[in-house]
């Protein structure tokens, strides 16, 4: 038996433990918002890391406004030294989950296993990924192999709300950074046979139109902010939407519909609250929140300028149309370099474990890759993990046990290769 054969055999032998640990994680409903039970979940991961030979440290996100007594933002990082400090491979998983929502036929937080699938909110996104990362390292240890490099595993908070108290916080303080971290793998659910090399950009903004209040029986004395918002949204729909839909990226974004730039109107609010007490007034204010996903080829500056230009033109054409735009969040696109060793190493692992490789993909939405690369400066970062992207955030979310075990194997082989450990 080669050393890598022994590692793979140890993953198989640990299959029940991997499944059980995933279920344990699902049973801690770390729902975000608001960020429930983060300390408990960090400690659950920390205890298992310690059992598996990791030195474990907890990092509450001191200084972040969302880190409160009621909802502390606690991250956990385990470090296991090999023969050398470098290369250092960091495996990162977020343990927050989105709310369960409606439509479940199974208890979302019971960790039910049925027909080879683990069900639950956060099963694929991404508690299975955390279990896979942990047991990939454990299988190597159980095979009696000391790596020629070191490993870190982090469980972090708030990825679903931007990751500012999680990976961004750790990267900001140098815990994940180019001066010490060589490779980062994030086991997000992006299909067990695919390697994810980054994501599109996000420009999330609030648009407000300002009108002038007047009595609703004499609307001609006022200026309706709602009507002006309608003008603006109509121009966005007729002019901007077709223009951006015609643009496509060279990045292999899945699903292919997301290879184009997109815009979603997340919400709108103006005038009398619907269902509230009646106020016979002309709406003097209307607000909308918009989510523009832009391509790496477009860039942020041009994306924003195009929207401002459209708004300025509307303001010039329509008397008394006044608007204001406020940036809520900007995430720049990221892309792993084509020659990153991570891609080749994972690709080889996929061919060995699954007998096939689906190659590289890019994600339609962002994930913590952005912070690793843009704050931490680590360009050798990919997402690879168990689970089907389409099931994330859905009712009856599940992760296949086969996927979970196979992803653990691929990650274990990658750890051997990335640290230059003879396999
Ligand atoms: Zn996720």
What separation lies between the terminal Cα atoms? Answer: 10 Å
Principal-axes shape call: elongated
The largest beta-sheet arranges its strands as 1-2-6-3-7-15
Number of helices: 10
Could you estimate the helical fraction of the residues in percent? 25-40%
Instruction: Give the SSE order as H and E letters.
Output: HHHEEEEEHEHEEEHEEHEEHEHEEH
Given as residue ranges, the uncertain stretches (5+ residues, pLDDT < 50) are none
Number of strands: 16
**Major beta-sheet overview:** 6 strands, mixed
Q: Percent of residues in beta strands?
A: 15-25%
Report the bound ligands by name, code or SMILES.
zinc ion
**Structural class assignment:** alpha/beta
CA radius of gyration is 24 Å
- Overall pLDDT metric: 97
Task: Note the main attributes of this structure.
423 residues, alpha/beta, 6-stranded mixed sheet, 4-stranded antiparallel sheet, 10 helices, elongated, binds zinc ion
Description:
- This protein has helices at residues 3-13, 15-26, 38-51, 123-142, 167-172, 225-245, 300-317, 341-354, 369-374, 401-418, and strands at 55-60, 74-80, 88-94, 113-114, 117-119, 150-156, 183-186, 195-199, 201-210, 262-270, 285-294, 322-331, 334-335, 360-363, 381-383, 398-400.
- By secondary structure, the protein is α/β, with parallel strands linked by helices.
- The strands form 4 sheets. Strands 1-2-6-3-7-15 form a 6-stranded mixed beta sheet. Strands 10-11-9-12 form a 4-stranded antiparallel beta sheet, with helices on one face. A 3-stranded antiparallel beta sheet has the order 4-5-16.
- Helix 1 (3-13) packs antiparallel against helix 10 and helix 8 (341-354) packs across helix 10.
- It starts with a helix and ends in a 5-residue tail after the last helix.
- The model has no long low-confidence stretch (mean pLDDT 97).
- Bound molecules: zinc ion.
